[in-house]
Amino acid sequence: MANGTLKVAETENPLAVLIDADNANPNIVDGLLSEIAKLGVASVKRIYGDWTIPNLNGWKLVLLEHSIQPIQQFRYTTGKNATDSAMIIDAMDLLYTGPFKGFCIVSSDSDFTRLASRLREAGKVVYGFGEMKTPKPFVAACDRFIYTEVFTPQHSGSDNEEVSSEAALSKQTSKELTCSPLSKPASS
């Protein structure tokens, strides 16, 4: 039944989660996936990198624990990032072939600014996740941008965690970007 299938997809809010391993920390994954679960269902979870280089070794256990599919992309030359291109191509393939309501782009790299804009032009919701150092154009290109510092162990379990996460979820204006979503609100 076509209508029944469509209704299930709307209820589940399927999301494609695409992680740039070169620009994300494996220590954030538990908090990241918990936050994504509040937004929808992570129907696809992929992470992109050159898995032959030692600086990505910290991801292995995390990938196994959370069933995140690693996508191998060799570096063709130094100074260029073929990983970003592979992630962008996959995102466009998923846009045209999958039933996704939105995309979660996990990176602090401004190279994904145009991808976020293009996905939004196609009517998809784009959730960005990255560090506070993420360039403003990428943050602005997303419907919502969540700073991954809220997922690090030093911030988990704090009394202010719910407020910090809520503040990080709100759409950031260029003026608000200069303020840290992690700062403690004034007590009333």
Tag the structure with descriptive keywords.
globular; 37% helix; six-stranded parallel β-sheet; 19% strand; disordered N terminus; 7 helices; 188 residues; alpha/beta
Written description of the protein model:
Strand 4 (102-106), helix 5 and strand 5 (125-130) form a beta-alpha-beta unit. This protein is globular. The longest helix is centred in the middle third of the chain and has 16 residues, at 82-97. The chain is 37% helix and 19% strand. The chain has helices at residues 2-12, 29-39, 60-66, 82-97, 113-121, 136-141, 161-169, and strands at 14-20, 41-49, 69-72, 102-106, 125-130, 144-147. By secondary structure, the chain is of the alpha/beta class.
SSE layout and pairing:
Layout: H1 2-12, E1 14-20, H2 29-39, E2 41-49, H3 60-66, E3 69-72, H4 82-97, E4 102-106, H5 113-121, E5 125-130, H6 136-141, E6 144-147, H7 161-169
Parallel strand pairs: 1-2, 1-4, 2-3, 4-5, 5-6
